[in-house]
Amino acid sequence: MITSGGQAGTAASPPIRPSRAWYWVAGCALAGALICLALAVAGFFSLNGQIKAFQRVRVPGQAEVVFAQPGGYVLYVERPGQCCSIAIGSGSAPFSSWSMNVAMRAVNDGPPVSISTWRGATQSYGVAGHQGQAAMQVTIGQPGRYLLRATDVVPRSITDLAVGRGIGRGLLIPLVLALVALFALIPAGLLAGGVTFLRRRRARRNLPAALQALPVMQPNGNLRSAMSIPGPTPPDPGQPGQHPAGGHPGLPGQAEDLLGRRVGAAFIDIALLAGLLVIMGLTVGQASVGGGGFDISLGPAWFLVYLALVLLYYFTTETATGQTVGKRLLGLRVVRTDGSRPSAAAVAGRTLLRLIDWLPALYLTGFITVLATGPRRQRLGDLAARTGVARALPARRPGLAYIPLALVLVAVAGLSAYRASSPGGGPPAHSAPGPAATSATGRALTGTEQAFVTHMRTRFNFSGKVADNDIATFGAGVCTGRRAGQSQAAVTSGAKSQWTNTSASDAYAITRLAEADMCPAYLPKQTRHTIARFTGTGATSTARFTVGGNGNWVLHYSYDCSAQPFGFGNFFVDEDAMNTDNLSAVAVNRLGRRGHGSWHVHGDAGRHYLAIHTKCSYAMSVVQKY
């Protein structure tokens, strides 16, 4: 064949099999596994929240429960336990046998409700300090308030009777999704990708032999072997117009292995995006300091927004300049395998496949692929989009890449300082009373009301959507009821009705706090005695102590961090390593030179211990209140 330029043409190279489309098949399988695992995790968290929201009645005893919808409900027998387990089957049940007399009727003297023994597969769980199993079932025909009573409880280790919907379906769906991801999609994706890579590498190694056997038509009409025709002279990397040296041998004009630079650039980008996560956590999420660490959490919707911003960062920077901040600092650039600039579609493909390369954490899948591809150093996204990473020409102003990192660092430091100093944003502050606060309705709160509102927000983590006036009105209502002769049980029942998704023990704690702050004359006369004292320096866990009776106690503490660097430090104390669902449980978080205070706990009888996270010296005492 004679080309238009009069040069000798060659026959087309044989295609490399299998097709690159199998990389997309493997990527789709791994993406499906990621989605299934995400849905499974979300399902388990939802199930955990469902169990924590169960209405609970101390046994033996009685209390009101509220059914908002008709239908079937399950009664679970519980005892204190550890997190985290959810299972179906009698082998993991916490009680091999149990018995109790249970009765339930509507509060307005309605007829008794029929309760039957649970007949399905045993459902058991260990969540947030509760270990329970399905015991009985009941069908509610009319929503409303009911009085649930339990007596003659055996064994005595049963402490609560929890009421809620069955957890069987909520457990089955996440379990099936996790099994499909772990035992079907992930093996299929890894197998398809691995086989495709190995077979294509073998085909590329055999390609020179296949080309040698191909005949080529010369201008004089003779057929000659492709290997007998002189090839073009390799380009000189030092000549002008050639692609800059560097990168890996798989890209044109490259000889340097850039694995170390690529890993370094990835960590710089991760640090930048971690700063973005901290900023979002401090502004629209939840952030806390304690236990020697920094905890950030975002709601599902805001996490999706963060994920979209991460993908947008990689797509826009690599489409515009071929360089992220990390690649610019380390002199790298994204290119096609022929050395040309990648298209927007290719960058979009390699960006989306970052979700797969990240699995299971910190680009582990991508790093393994980079090592497996040899000198070409391509991750899954590069293989699918036919791109790679090469050395870039020296940037005119490389220092500009430090600007985003500096801005993120300044923003994180400023927002952290603001969060720590703002009311309700950091640990409870002990300061002189300020101007009278104004409620959402415009009425100025009294000093007593404002103190109660502050205690409610700092100790019970009330949402900002709940107005100060609503909290103050609730406290006034508790006092009005007590003055009118209502019992503590009656006002506690009213609190349970007003603050939805609140357990009976939490409603009791909230009501007692209202009485203590706004009408202490109606609190029962208390006696106190010291249960335990603890002193020391540094992080530790205390010995266990027992709180009996009504479960009301107070932790008095003082700390001194003046000997620490810069003259201040963090003092953090939590109860039972946060493995409790009591909203008034100890969660002291102080930052400063020195200080002291008290933390009141309500309705929390049993054996406890305190986990202390600090480098400062401290002294604490636990006092029982009767």
Count of DSSP H/I helices? 15
Cα gyration radius (Å): 33 Å
Q: How is the main sheet built?
A: 7 strands, antiparallel
What is the rounded distance between the termini? 103 Å
Instruction: Give the % helix.
Output: 25-40%
Low-confidence stretches: 1-11, 223-250, 421-442
Shape: globular
Extended strand count: 26
Mean pLDDT: 75
Please identify the oligomeric state: single chain
Question: Which structural class matches the secondary elements?
Answer: alpha+beta
Name the beta content range: 15-25%
Structural domains: how many:
5
Describe the protein.
It contains 15 helices and 26 strands. It is of the alpha+beta class. The chain folds into five domains: 64 residues; 111 residues; 160 residues, no CATH class; 76 residues; 98 residues, Jelly Rolls. The strands form eight sheets. Strands 1, 3, 4, 6, 7, 8 and 10 form a seven-stranded antiparallel β-sheet that branches. It has a four-stranded antiparallel β-sheet with strand order 17-26-20-23, with no helix packed on it. It has a four-stranded antiparallel β-sheet with strand order 18-25-21-22, with no helix packed on it. Helix 12 packs across helix 13.
Give the helices and strands, then pairings.
Elements: H1 21-52, E1 55-58, E2 61-67, E3 71-80, E4 85-88, E5 99-106, E6 115-117, E7 123-127, E8 130-140, E9 144-154, E10 160-164, H2 168-205, H3 207-212, E11 215-217, E12 223-225, H4 259-283, E13 286-290, E14 293-297, H5 300-320, H6 325-329, E15 332-336, H7 344-352, H8 354-357, H9 364-372, H10 380-385, E16 387-391, H11 402-421, H12 447-460, H13 468-483, H14 488-498, H15 504-518, E17 528-537, E18 540-541, E19 545-547, E20 552-560, E21 569-575, E22 587-592, E23 594-601, E24 606-608, E25 610-614, E26 617-625
Antiparallel strand pairs: 1-10, 2-9, 3-8, 3-10, 4-7, 5-9, 6-8, 7-8, 11-12, 13-14, 15-16, 17-26, 18-25, 19-24, 20-23, 20-26, 21-22, 21-25
Helix pairs in contact: 1-2, 4-11, 5-7, 12-13, 12-15, 13-14, 13-15, 14-15
